[in-house]
UniProtKB/TrEMBL annotation, chain A:
One of its GO terms (cellular component) is plasma membrane. This is ABC transporter permease. It is a multi-pass membrane protein. It comes from Microbaculum marinum. One of its GO terms (biological process) is transmembrane transport.
UniProtKB/TrEMBL annotation, chain B:
Transmembrane segments: none annotated. Belongs to the ABC transporter superfamily. Gene3D superfamilies: 2.40.50.100, P-loop containing nucleotide triphosphate hydrolases. It comes from Microbaculum marinum. Residues 7-237 form the ABC transporter domain. This is ABC transporter ATP-binding protein.
Amino acid sequence: MSGERAFSRLLLAPITLVYLLFLIAPISFFLAMSLFRYDAFELYIPTLTGENFARLVTDGYYRDIILRTLKIAFLTAAFSLLLGYPLAYFLARTKTIWRGVLMFLVIAPLMSGVIVRTYGWIILLGSEGALNRALLWTGVIAEPLKLLNTEGAVLVALVHILMPYMVFPLFSSLASQDPDVERAAGTLGAGRIRTFFEVTLPLSKAGIAMGSALVFTLAAGAVVTPALLGGKNVQMLGQQIYDLVLSTLNWPLASAIAFVLVACQFVIIGLYFRTGKAKAGVV
Amino acid sequence: MTDDSVLELRGVEKLYGETRVLGPIDFTVQKGELLTLLGPSGCGKTTTLHIIAGLVEPTVGTVTMSGRDVTNLEPPHRDMGLVFQNYALFPHKTVFDNVAFGLRMRRVGREEIRERVMRVLDVVGLPGVEQRQPHQLSGGQRQRVAVARAVVIEPQVLLLDEPLSNLDALLRKRMRLELRDIQQRLGITTVFVTHDQDEAFEMSDRVILMNRGRIEQLGSPEDLYDRPESRFAAEFIGETNLIDGKVTKANGTTVSIAVTGGAEFQAPLTNGAGAVGQEVYLMVRPERVEIARERPADAAAIGARVTKRVFSGDMLALTLTSADGLEIVSRKPSVSRYRDLEEGSDVWMMLEECRMLPRDDTAVAR
């Protein structure tokens, strides 16, 4: 028994080491860095200060970026949920060949890189892009619409790219429901819509929480997609950190932003585990 | 259709593609009775129940409830309560909300819901648990909640799909009597599905024995046990001795059947079989094989030797073999007059209440 436990601990050793070196250590590092003073020549001076965080709140530029990031991440999660739920529901309930086909289509985007998919959206949304041409050709518009470099473009692309992270948790929670529970609601007099809102939806709470938490955290941390589709108009936290670290070389401020981002994500994950715990007892 | 029939199935069949899984079957359920669909797995009993509940659509045939054709009605519009094998309670709702669900769907007022839920929980013997979650209940309690949830809406017909199969043996025996008691107290017309013969016999007014999608035999438990009409019925229900025999005489109501070694036995004529010279089975229940130490006056007694003795506490199973090789099992209570029978003891056996069964029949797959 104790040998078995020792063995399972031994198996955990490599991943523990990886986490310590590449997660805990960097987080501790930038947490410390976020409290240091910025210096144009020395990069940073290790004296404790709250000025980096103060700047995030007082400087309208950074405040806007933080709020925009949270807004886009929230909307991405919301739209992914609205669009992904029907798909996941269909996948979980159908027994036809569509299950395999659609499942493949959901997974397929994960097999190409995020940059490839983002460029795909540039081709679609550019002023010479497919969408504008189609609209011009049909005469719906006279001038090409400005679709790129908008929040909308970033949102649409993020919803598309992150959809699998929403669909799979939803699918697994819907597929694991006992079909007799829905049938029971039917025999007790509930129609299909009542059954959905009374039984199916509440029982998929864990999947909703998991999918939303995943999509929110991934969207809030996105770098490439907002940079390519949003440009300078749609600045998000991920790019700011990137710019501050590599161009401006203001590491303390970059660390403070990173800290805000990580804190938001931890709050979301914390919320997920609270709903998860409430669910866990229910079996 | 008589005035008292609440539910009627007529010519009901279910085919999946070319494969017929059920039917055609016909039966009616009388008001207030408990009718059991009994049979091995895959015999079509659960499909039949699902057709009654509206969860499965029959390929052909009609389901009628109190004179109304409900064949094409969705489950919410049928007046039935169904208890699932795994109970299918709503895991996210309290016991109260589980039981209240059907009443809420029927837009019953809050006060009345409260009152009826409390009353039904009392009937099923579960007062005081209404605020618990299903996962906090034992298997037996969940089962009662499932019954309460199904009967609180006062359905015309209560359907029970193997509701006892997930309980441990002791609880299952107790719940049988309790379910029967609840059913009789509420006077609710019930269709019960089980593969367990004891359950079927102890609970039912009438039993439908099913096999390969068809009704094998329909009758009271006594009918099925005492007067099986096929080898399947004889073997599926209880234990039985089946002996190869041949009809030697037939006189209207009874026949004589000769078995190995030439001994002849009388049996009543059954469903058409029984022409002189026909190969048949002679059937006798083990507890109806009498044993005597001394040669009895009965001329039909056959000399035999105990070749096997199995003691199971309250009962003794004795295999008796005659000089001609006729082998018959006798089951006797383990009281002193039988207990001192040993393997090798010489005895006389008398076969009572013999039945004749036709040969053209399949054996029961156990």
